[in-house]
Specification:
Number of helices: 2
Shape: globular
Largest sheet: 6 strands, antiparallel, barrel
CATH superfamily: predicted glycosyltransferase like domains
Strand content: over 45%
CATH class: Mainly Beta
Distance between the termini: 41 Å
Radius of gyration: 15 Å
Number of strands: 7
Structural class: mainly beta
Strand order of the largest sheet: 1-2-3-6-5-4
CATH topology: Thrombin, subunit H
Amino acid sequence: MVTAQRQARCVEWERRKHSRYGLRYAAAVRSQEKEFTREVRAVSQNISASGILLKAAVPIPCRSRVSLSIAIQEDHMLRRVQLAAEGEVVRLDPTESGTGFLIAIRCDQLMSEVSPQVLSAKL
């Protein structure tokens, strides 16, 4: 049975081609909305080679073009790694608790590592 929530999704999520990994990292997402750029802080819920699922306090509309960056820092790492990608919001759902939103982004290309200087200039 298809729920109303699934019917309201902007794009049906096709069968996944890549494995997903339940990784939780801080993310920043920028979208262009009319005359201004909006930045949303989020936390990744899972990441794959072709996309990312984020949890954020505010929504980003479906079909929005976005630029995103993720900061990865683990205890065993010598330095923090910054990943960046561009893509499109393909799904937006409220969280089960109703306190935020799950935002699915399909990336145009694989995420790539960037230096902090390039990241701040690009985004």
